[in-house]
Amino acid sequence: MSLAQDALPGLAPILPRHDWTRAEVKALFALPFPDLIFRAAQVHRANFDPAEVQISTLLSIKTGGCPEDCAYCPQSAKFDTGVKAGKLMDIEAVLAEARAAKAGGASRFCMGAAWRSPKDRDLDKVCAMVEGVKALGMETCVTLGMLEAAQARRLKDAGLDYYNHNLDTSPEFYGEIVSTRCYQDRLDTLDNVRAAGINVCCGGIVGMGETLEDRAGMIAALASLPVHPESVPINMLVQVEGTPLSGAPRIDTFDFVRTIAVARIAMPASMVRLSAGREDMSEETQALCFLAGANSIFYGPKLLTTPNPERDRDMRLLDKLGLKAME
Question: Which of 39, 108, 127, 141 does the annotation list as catalytic?
Fold first, then answer.
């Protein structure tokens, strides 16, 4: 029996395991496409209603001017992408966006700030935003860069539900994408978030020139965390002129769907989010991703600074597929 077959117990309820090896993850990637999708769908059905999709909205509350040099990011101050540095939004303006998102069907409101790490005075306003969004009856998520333990506790006290901090790629390829912080910095932030009692949102980006080995390494790293991230965004690189990755070869559609499926199998109880890059995906590609176990999307006109499908387009697609928004 293959490594991949050993890893899959069938239709019985599937509990997360945390000892995934890279060889096992690579064996999943190597399965014939129909077998991989079928097995991912089995895992999905054992843990979720396959007809439900969790819908989130992402708002950039502080745009541009980031001192990091993440090669994919148009918000880095080191690249000329036309994104201007802005100030942190006013609390009431953020809450107005949250109310509109809730009215449009979103159950989670995510707020992103282009910082290396937040200053305490900025964290005061972010905590007030979290409290305000919670008061609307929505789940809250923020992504603010690296966090110290005390900062994570402050966010928890404000009622934060999720903190996003992606690993981006494999440990080996990471240095090709970011030089201003190391992989361990990201793991330390995840540890601080988890210790504070906040749910973790952590995934990565594919299509950055990484190899299959790197994709397997990224998923193995995520699936080997002591507790799996409750939310795992899988992003397809959105190429932005002026960033070092502009013009990179695009990932094959089926390789992207395979990544979704392997993430679903390796982290059976996590929400697997079909995240950045949907603007360039056909309806058929997105449908394959849902079949492969994706059960969360962002909707709205933008993901921080890059385009995202409009809400009506998303709702039409969900209607075509007989999918419904998770409450």
Answer: 141
- Amino acid present at 168: D
For the question of residue 289 being annotated catalytic, the response is no
Q: How far is CA 65 from CA 57, 216, 240, 308, in A?
A: 22, 32, 16, 22
**Which residue shows structure tokens 């390494």?**
217
For tokens 């912080």, the residue is 181
Question: Given 39, 127, 201, 278, which residue is catalytic?
Answer: 201
201 is catalytic: yes
CA 80 distance to own-chain centroid? 25
Is position 127 annotated as part of the catalytic site?
Answer: no
DSSP labels, 39-90: HHHHHHHHHS-TTEEEEEEEEEEE-S-B----TT-TTBTTS-SSPPP-PPPP
Strands (DSSP E) contained in 167-261 are: 199-201, 204-206, 231-236
Is residue 182 annotated as part of the catalytic site, yes or no? no
Pairing verdict, β 271-274 and 231-236 = parallel
Whether 202 is catalytic is no
66 is catalytic: yes
pLDDT at residue 106 is higher than 50? yes
> Mean of the per-residue pLDDT values for the chain?
87
Secondary structure class of 262 (helix, strand, coil)? helix
Please name the residue that has the structure tokens 């909707």: 299
Tens of pLDDT, residue by residue over 12-41, are 556 788 889 999 999 999 999 999 999 999
pTM for the predicted model, two decimal places = 0.86
Annotation says 45 is catalytic: no
**Whole-angstrom distance, CA of residue 64 vs CA of residue 83:** 6
For the stretch 169-184, pLDDT in tens is: 999 999 999 999 889 9
Q: Which of 181, 215, 264, 273 is catalytic?
A: 273
